Amino acid sequence: MQKPASYRPSMSRRWWLQHQHFVLYMLREATVVPLVFFAGCMIAGLWALNSGAEAWVSWQAFMANPLVILINLLTLAASLFHAATFFPLMPRVMPIRIGAKTLPVNAIVGGMWAVVAIIAIALVAYFIWRA
Amino acid sequence: MMKHHIAKDEPLWWALFSAGGICFAMLVPAAILVFGLLMPMGIIPASAFDYESLRGLGLGWPGLIFAGGVIALPAFHALHRIRHSCADLMLGKESVNKVWAYGLASLMSLMAVGVVLVNLF
After folding, report:
1. A88 in helix, strand or coil?
2. Which residues are within 8 A (CB) of B23 and not within 5 positions of it... i.e. 6 or more apart?
3. Does the complex come out with an ipTM higher than 0.90?
4. Which of A67, B25, B28, B35 is least surrounded by CB atoms within 10 angstroms?
5. Region A117-123: what's the mean pLDDT?
6. Where are the transmembrane segments (chain A) (predicted)?
7. Could you say which of B49, B71, B119 has the minimum Cβ distance to residue A50?
8. Is pLDDT of B53 > 70?
9. β-strand A97-98 against A101-102: which pairing, if any?
10. Which chain B residues touch A127 with a CB distance below 8 Å?
11. Contact B37 A53 (CB under 8 A)
């Protein structure tokens, strides 16, 4: 039997530049690029801890490189942008019901931001307390 | 009748992507703030990051949570998105992209979790 010739619509690689929403979509997809860099930094940190005091100090020096700080500032912005696009989706995909009432979207989104803030404040406070 | 191809492994990748997305939004900002900004900029004094005491923490149980929540799961989240972005931009072959994307995420996870586990046990 002969295979039917399939129809393949031609599509440009720049399709996402044609609409503001597509650009925003691609920008959100791109937030993971600095995340991979940060994860790599953290792996190096754990390995430095494993190697010894000297490796730890040189890892700290690497993290203090102005370019690395700049990329990590970008990573922080990327993670917050990811959160801002992700949190409003959660209560729509998985509505939380208490009895017959559905929790309002804003309450859940606010709650999720509160968790982000609490974890950040707790970690910063812990390290300030250690100092 | 059309035969549908069912990828049995997709639920696993999606679960890792999803869990990693929550970690990326909730745990990663705190980690970047402390280790990417406040430590290197000297805003939190260096004595907080003293090697001797941080080694036990980083390569102990808190380190295991860190390796899983800040490194391994976000790595799977990131590489899943990169795989799909490659498809969006028609780059490479999907079957090949899958291998390097999840392969790299697995390697990163193994390097992070492994170094902690070796010290824990």
Report:
1. coil
2. B69, B70, B73, B74, B77
3. yes
4. A67
5. 98
6. 21-49, 69-91, 103-129
7. B119
8. yes
9. antiparallel
10. 34, 38-39, 44, 48-49
11. no
**At which residue do the structure tokens 């390290």 appear?**
A127
Q: How far is A98 from chain B (nearest CA, A)?
A: 23
* CA-based nearest residue to B101, from B7, B17, B5: B17
Q: Give the count of Cβ contacts less than 8 A between chain A and B.
A: 167
List residues bridging with A97 in a β-sheet: A102
Distance of CA A97 to the CA centre of its chain: 28
Q: What is the CA angle A28-A32-A36, rounded to 5?
A: 170
In chain A the beta strands, taken as DSSP E runs, fall at: 97-98, 101-102
Task: Write the pLDDT tens digit of every residue in B66-106.
Answer: 999 999 999 999 999 999 999 888 888 888 999 999 999 99
**Which letter does DSSP use for residue B38 in this model?**
I
- Cα distance between residue B11 and residue A16, in whole Å: 27
Measured CA to CA, the distance from residue B23 to residue A38 in angstroms comes to: 13
Inter-chain contact A124–B37, Cβ cutoff 8 Å?
no
Q: Do A73 and B36 lie within an 8 Å CB cutoff? A: yes
Residue A96: per-residue pLDDT? 84
Which residues have a Cβ under 8 Å from the Cβ of A31 and sit 6 or more positions away?
A78, A79, A81, A82
Are the Cβ atoms of A29 and B79 closer than 8 angstroms?
no
Nearest neighbour of A43 by CB, restricted to B29, B32, B108: B108
CB contact under 8 A, B39 and A127: yes
Does the pLDDT value for residue A94 go beyond 90?
A: no
Q: What is the average pLDDT value for chain B, to the nearest integer?
A: 93
B75: nearest CA partner in chain A: A36
Cβ-contact B17, B77 below 8 angstroms? yes
